[in-house]
Amino acid sequence: MEAGWIKVFTADEEYQAEVIKNLLENNGFLPVLLDKKDDEFRLGVAEVYVAPNEAEKAKAIITENQA
Q1: Which end of the chain is flanked by fewer CB atoms within 10 Å, N or C?
Q2: How many angstroms separate the CA atoms of 44 and 56, rounded?
Q3: Average pLDDT along the chain, 67 residues, taken 10 residues at a time
Q4: In 10 A of CB 42, how many CB atoms?
Q5: Which of 12, 5, 9 is nearest to 22 (CA)?
Q6: Burial (Cβ within 10 Å: 0-12, 13-18, ≥19) of residue 57
Q7: What is the pTM for the complete model shown?
Q8: Nearest 5 degrees, angle CA 27-CA 20-CA 31?
Q9: What is the DSSP string of the chain?
């Protein structure tokens, strides 16, 4: 992942972020999922990032599919 990538989704559960990552991949994006959970206690979040030039469109696709 390059510097400056934009977070477009955050989830408490990794599977939720994985669903969004797959949705974006199916729409031609190259998203990156970062698991920021503590390995021992599994506390934290999972985040999905996209390139800056794709952020607005990615957010729109996520919003459309969550309704």
Answers
A1: C
A2: 25
A3: 90 93 97 78 84 97 89
A4: 10
A5: 9
A6: middle
A7: 0.85
A8: 65
A9: --TT-EEEEEESSHHHHHHHHHHHHHTT---EEEE---TTT--S-EEEEE-GGGHHHHHHHHHHHH-
